Amino acid sequence: MDDIERPLSVSELTALVKEIVEGSLPSVLVEGEISNCRPASSGHLYFTLKDRGAMLQAVMFRYRYKTQGFEPADGLLVRARGSMSVYAARGQYQLIVERLERAGEGDILAMLEERKRALAAEGLFDDSRKRSLPRFPSRVAVVTSPTGAAIRDILNVLKRRNAGLDVVVLPASVQGEGAAAQIAAQIEAANRLALGEVLIVGRGGGSLEDLLPFSDELVVRAVAASAIPVISAVGHEIDWALSDFAADLRAPTPSAAAELVSESRTALAREVGQFAAELETAIRSRMDRARLLVGRFEPSAVEARFMRVFMPSARRLDEATEELKRGGAAALESRRRRLELASRDLAAMSPEAVMARGFSVVRPAAGGAALRDASALSPGEDVAITFAKGGAIAKTMEVLP
User: Fold this and answer.
1) Which of 150, 211, 222, 319 might form a disulfide with 254, Cβ 3.0–4.6 angstroms?
2) Cβ contacts of residue 327 below 8 Å, gap of 6+?
3) Superfamily for domain range 107-261
4) In angstroms, how far is the first alpha carbon of the chain from the final one?
5) What is the pLDDT of residues 330-367, one digit of tens each?
6) Assign residue 164 a region: left if phi > 0, alpha if psi is -120 to 50, beta otherwise?
7) CATH no. for 10-103
8) Are 245 and 145 in contact (CB under 8 A)?
9) Strands (E), 190-339
10) HEC string of 283-315?
11) pTM of the entire structure?
């Protein structure tokens, strides 16, 4: 300033502070708890970082906010990388955030990478260990939370695609302390008791920290040691866990895992139809070739040639033709039997057949979707029961866990 005794205007002082702050703090890394998080209609995100002793205003502009790997929310402990700035209109200093990550997430990733290298060095992730899934399993075991969205998605997919498939749910906590030990124990139990021909291990989406049990060494080793082929279905498509690398197959979601183990009834019927069409084409082709072979002989010369030279060849041709017919008939009968068996299997898997075996559907008497969990009922509540033939209205006397 030319005259240090001259009073500064508010704007001049603020500009001086802005120059000092922005010039001396071009890049900082701040850790704190998110508070007052509010996305603006412009797409920018405004929030406050706080600890026990202070608060700091922060803003993340739209083009940065849209590339975030998680959704910031009040109460989350985060690390924010950015630069300090002064908002002159309000005389406030603030942090302009360029990157935001959960506090400790970088440490978690480093730990997981180190663990991944150690386990890979033991050969637990080798492709040579991977096995193919059985195409038509009769029973599938699932290790997951019994109350999570993952098991509901799996059961819905299996019911839609193959209602006759048996499902054994082995309940386990999927996050928090002790979850890894429970998951590993249930994988071992599924193998010890031979509870399925395929084993799905997974949960719905979550933060990197939430998914940590599926990267625990106990779980990874249990998956690698499983005699039952394992599908790892942890989180959504962008999520990952070390169990993905040890499993025989990785599914992007629990629903996708269910689709992998259940052959669609429609696809099965289409395949049977293709077999029948291929069989008919093959028989017609062989018969056409036989007709062409026979048709080469002119009627006027056939008798003389048979008598002189070609009688043995004609006899062999007749025998071959009969054998061809017998073989074609036998093949047609075999394919017909397979078609009948497949048709019966399809009929046995239909909802009507399932209910005919003694199953029924329970819905609230007032209307609504079918009930799958007794906890959705209250004592004294009326329910509508649909049997294979007819139905009934009943009153709930007691709800059992």
Assistant:
1) 150
2) none
3) Succinyl-CoA synthetase domains (3.40.50.261)
4) 79
5) 888 888 888 888 888 787 777 777 777 788 889 998 88
6) alpha
7) 2.40.50.140
8) no
9) 198-203, 230-234, 249-250
10) HHHHHHHHHHHHHCCCHHHHHHHHHHHHHHHHH
11) 0.49
